[in-house]
Amino acid sequence: MGYPVRAYVEGYWYHVCTRGQREEPLFFSPEDRVTYLRLLDRTMDRLGGKIGSFCLMINHLHLLLKMGGTSLGRVLKIAHSEYARGFNKRRNIRGHLTQGRPVVKVILDKRYLNNVVGYVHMNPVEAGIADFAQDYKWSSWYWFLGIECDWINLDTWCYPPGFSSPNRVGAFKSCLRACGSDMPGDETYIGLEKEWNEFYQRRQEGREAQAFQEKRGRKTMLTIAQEVVDGTEYTTEEIRGQSKKRPISNLRREAMAKMYEEGYGTSDIARWFNRSPSTVSKAHNWWREKSK
């Protein structure tokens, strides 16, 4: 039996939720999340539609989307299929990435719209990986609090009804409070890279990251290290050791960076090399600069 027919109406807002197949991760790295949003933004720009809120977790995502001239179902199918192809290719795996069709609910009144805005941004708090909505980088709280987002621009961004006025910040805080979270005071920091790195490190140590550490066909850290030293005169034991020789140090940093790109947390990598998480972060930054 096929799926029931959905009513997609141009100009209406919809709450969309998509989960990973068998609750496996949709995202392993910051690059995965940026890639997904760029694909969605580009598809909606081409076919019509607007993005009004988003929150990209690990094994699922929430969106608030306004439908344009093309069925929202078709827009999502195109964007999700392209993202899945790239995701599988990067990890040399096959199979469906998402769990069936997205859950899609039409917004019919202001109260429900406000509830959705609050719910979308409160997901990290409900999951226990953030104390406040704006502690979690991968959501759209930037726009609602009037803070410049330094990691992506969205051509199809559009504030939902009731959030485009100068009272937007107050309306957003009210939505979060209604969902069970008080906003921190003005002295609380929201947004610079140093604090984000510290938070991201804590998140990698959290229960959600741990739950999916070995899923969806990631290479083991030993395999990655072995690939890095193949063709050199050095071994995985040497790059895991304490040698400060430049060739060994460079191979060690490369291995750390590639493990991070594969989706391992800084703390996991640090334990494998018997070093600090900050060393892993520096290795990743070094590798990205070197690869430009």
For the structure shown, list the relevant keywords:
292 residues, alpha+beta, Alpha-Beta Plaits, Chromosomal Replication Initiator Protein Dnaa, Chain: A, four-stranded antiparallel β-sheet, 4 strands, 48% helix
Topology (elements, then pairings):
Blueprint: E1 13-19, H1 30-47, E2 49-56, E3 60-67, H2 72-91, E4 103-106, H3 110-126, H4 141-144, H5 168-178, H6 193-204, H7 207-211, H8 221-229, H9 236-240, H10 246-262, H11 266-273, H12 277-291
Antiparallel strand pairs: 1-3, 1-4, 2-3
Helix pairs in contact: 1-2, 3-5, 8-10, 10-12, 11-12
Main pleated-sheet profile: 4 strands, antiparallel
As for the CATH topology of the largest domain, it is Alpha-Beta Plaits
Question: What is the radius of gyration?
Answer: 21 Å
Average pLDDT reading: 82
Q: What is the overall number of helices? A: 12
Tally of domains: 2
Strand content: 5-15%
Give the structural class: alpha+beta
- Corresponding CATH architecture of the largest domain: 2-Layer Sandwich
Shape: elongated
Share of helix, binned? 40-55%
Task: Strand order, main sheet: write it out.
Answer: 2-3-1-4
Tell me the name of the CATH homologous superfamily of the largest domain.
Transposase IS200-like
Q: What is the H-and-E element order? A: EHEEHEHHHHHHHHHH
CATH class designation of the largest domain: Alpha Beta
Q: What multimeric state do the chains show?
A: single chain
What's the total count of β strands?
4
